[in-house]
Specification:
Blueprint: E1 3-12, H1 18-25, E2 31-33, E3 49-53, H2 61-73, H3 76-83, E4 87-96, H4 107-116, E5 118-125
Parallel strand pairs: 4-5
Antiparallel strand pairs: 1-3, 1-4, 2-3
Length: 126
């Protein structure tokens, strides 16, 4: 496969600490960092980060979303409330050395993003 896609949902800069987000939502994240946890001297990361990543080998955003959807939808009201104190973001990461695949955002993913006030970022890594 010439390209691979990953979908990441991130809560960033929230007042609630990442471990509390996990407890409140009942979701085990792919990554979580408290502000300053990686490097206290440089204050890295500069914000709390709680992230849930897809882990499929597929170039279809729909397949990645179908994996994340039941987990995120199970806590959608809680995620919406938590996101109000920071930011929510979906990132569609594309790793490709050749032609970019078509990126189609499923309507249910766009609806969830709208519900929790998340932006959708398309990031092409080369």
């Amino acid at each position: 496969m010439d390209h691979i896609i990953k979908v990441c949902f991130v809560l960033i800069g929230t007042e609630m600490l990442p471990a509390e987000i996990s407890q409140k939502t009942g979701i085990s994240p792919s990554r979580e960092f408290r502000r300053g946890e990686r490097n206290a001297a440089k204050d890295l990361p500069r914000q709390n980060i709680w992230a849930l990543d897809s882990d499929l080998e597929s170039d279809e955003v729909l397949e990645h979303w179908n994996k994340l959807k039941p987990v995120l939808n199970g806590a959608r009201d809680t995620i919406r409330e938590i996101a109000k104190s920071g930011a929510a973001k979906f990132t569609v990461v594309i790793e490709s050395q050749h032609r970019l695949p078509s990126i189609i955002i499923p309507s249910s993913m766009a609806e969830f993003a709208g519900f929790v006030n998340a932006v959708i970022d398309i990031d092409h890594l080369q």
